Amino acid sequence: MSLLDIRGIDVFYGDVQVVYDLSLTVNEGEVVSIIGGNGAGKSTLLRTISGLLKPAGGEILFDGQPMHTRLPEEIVEAGLIHVPEGRRLFSLMSVADNLIVGGHNKRAYPHVPQNLAKVYEMFPRLQERAAQLAMTLSGGEQQMVAIGRGLMAMPKLLMLDEPSLGLAPLLIQEIFRTVRMIADLGTTVLLVEQDVRHSLSLSDRGYVLEHGRVAMEGDAKELMDNPHIKTAYLGI
Amino acid sequence: MDLIFLLQDVINGILMGSIYGLVALGLTLVFGVLKIINFAHGSFLMVGMYVAYWIVAYTGLHPYLALFLVAPIMYFFGYQMQQWLIRPIFVAERDVREPITVIIVTTGVWYVLDNLALLLFGPDYRALSPNPLKGEMIEIGEILISTPKLFGFIITVLTAAGLYWFLLKTRMGRAIRATSLDRDAASLMGISQWKIFNVAFGIGTAIAGIAAVVLVPVYNVYPTVGVPFDVKSFVIVVLGGLGSIPGALLGGVIIGLIESIGPNFMTSTWTEAIVYGLFLLVLFFKPSGLFGQKYDW
Ligand SMILES: Nc1ncnc2c1ncn2[C@@H]1O[C@H](COP(=O)(O)OP(=O)(O)OP(=O)(O)O)[C@@H](O)[C@H]1O
Ligand SMILES: [Mg+2]
Fold first, then answer.
1. DSSP H/E element including B214
2. Ligand 1 within 6 A of A178 CB?
3. Which of A30, A104, A169, B139 is deepest in the core (most CB within 10 A)?
4. Is residue B289 included in any domain, yes or no?
5. Could you give the C-alpha distances from A6 to A19, A59, A187, A199, B108, in angstroms and in order?
């Protein structure tokens, strides 16, 4: 049984359908990439999984439990954690408070001190900046807070929406290394990316989303060698 | 000699202004989290004053001891008000961040509460009794300070400090700040938006209750007693910066000072003109308020 099992969901904004009959699975211990161009519906899919949007049809199962009928806070409680696109930090709160709020859910809150120490160990820069307001950080540091905040929630499955967005090449590498490290430490990862080369190279499997539909899926290595992906996403 | 009078007015202005600030504190908290102006806030103050009045009348409790009953009662009242009256509108207007219909509803609540009070208690002006604080004064040299107003000032400072501590240091406080900054991101942290709205509304109403207890020894209770405070709080909150806690207190003190010093130099209708003139100036030149919201909680 898959950890995350999405079965034929349809998602609308008002009357406009954005995701069509989409199915996707993530197994425990995997890193799965979702790639696709602007407006393909990647963020919409993640927002639906985390309960910010409700699918009009289909179902979402996590650990065998239905998620599409639950509230966002209940989905977090189940261990399905979403690090949103554009970081969405609490700009006027300190770095430390952002991280502590990340551990708000009942399951994680008793472990906040230990988890905070782990996040600081992973990102020593954040400890130096603990008292600083989140809005005063650089883009790379903000992304570290966003990821750290996701880890504070003690995810069983961590969903990252374009963590490399807007970062310099060197920082992008660092972020991908971090994602790999998180996976190696035992967290299942669902990674949405436009940086196809990097994301597929650290993933086990991948899905290609086009116009709200799964256009292709399979082993990450095979996807990288696929001629369509080479021309459309890798520019070779 | 003149200087003594002036000093007396300054002290009075600060004390009374801090009480205005206390009323505004509840309004600014609710605005900071729900992003709506609660026009029923003055009516909540009125309800709190009646609650305090009746508790003291029936039990003979010292008004400041009644505080420990009034604040929780008002918290409960506000919490349920948000849960059953305001939340359904937020749900219906899910896609609107600051639904105007909520403002219409809070205005409706204001009218209903004021008229309900009129129906139940009549239009009479009621003075607290027993009132152990009646006319109590502290004399410092030639300066007379009203004891209940001095207590009001102290209670205001304690309430504001307590609120700050709560928002900065507790799990619920952090969740409230996170929700006020970014609702969706807060949801992704596992924070229940509706719970936070209920709690914030409850606390805002409890603060109106604390202000009610502070006012009831020096102010008559009647069904529309909340109206002038409602209007003043609104001016104060805009003056100090919507959502700003220090802004609410300082804005209150500014209004208090204008009201107490002004009449030495002009007729009191003019002081009101100054208050609203200042209000308009701030709206024109610094719409985020004198103490902006930028580096607030
Ligand atoms: N709040 C919204 N209301 C209406 N339409 C929306 C909304 N958000 C997104 N859309 C539309 O839904 C489609 C998918 O958007 P989505 O943000 O999911 O794409 P994406 O794959 O994440 O793109 P990107 O890589 O640019 O982030 C787009 O056509 C977009 O215009
Ligand atoms: Mg996106």
1. helix B193-215
2. no
3. A104
4. no
5. 12, 6, 19, 21, 45
> Over 90: is that where the pLDDT of B135 sits?
no
pLDDT for the residue numbered B280:
87
- The tens digit of pLDDT for each residue in B251-264 reads 999 999 999 888 87
The CATH number that domain A1-79+155-236 falls under is: 3.40.50.300
The DSSP letter of residue B126 is B
Q: Which domain holds residue B220?
A: 13-227
As annotated, the residues of chain A forming the CATH 3.40.50.300 domain(s) are 1-79+155-236
Asked if B213 and B63 count as a contact pair (C-beta separation under 8 A), the reply is yes
Collect all residues of chain A within an 8 Å Cβ-Cβ radius of residue B188. 50, 52, 72, 76, 81-84, 88
**The pLDDT value given to residue B93:** 83
Please answer yes or no on whether B177 and A104 come within 8 Å at the CB atom.
no
Q: What is the largest CA-CA distance in chain B?
A: 63
pTM above 0.90, yes or no: yes
CA of B93 from ligand 2 middle (Å) equals 25
Residue B253 lies in a domain: no
- B2: Cα separation from own chain's centroid: 33
Neighbouring-strand partners of residue A66: A61
- Kindly state if the Cβ of A42 falls inside 6 Å of ligand 1: yes
Yes or no, beta carbons of A76 and B188 under 8 Å apart? yes
Q: Is the pLDDT of residue B296 over 70?
A: no
Residue in B with minimal Cα distance to A102: B189
The answer to the question of residue B191 being in a domain is yes
Interface of B with A in 167-206 (CB under 8 A): 171, 174-175, 177-178, 181-182, 184-192
Rounded Cα gap, residues B255 and B257, in angstroms: 5
The whole-angstrom distance between B189's CA and the closest CA on chain A is: 5
- Residue entry with tokens 């993640």: A46
Q: Cis (ω within 30 of 0) for the bond into B63?
A: no
In one letter, which amino acid is A158?
L
Counting the structural domains of chain B, the total is: 1
A58 and chain B in contact, CB less than 8 A? no
Residues whose beta carbons lie less than 5 angstroms from ion ligand 2: A 43, 85
Lowest mean pLDDT among A110-119, B16-25, B122-131, B265-274: B265-274
Asked if the interface predicted TM-score (ipTM) of this complex is over 0.90, the answer is yes
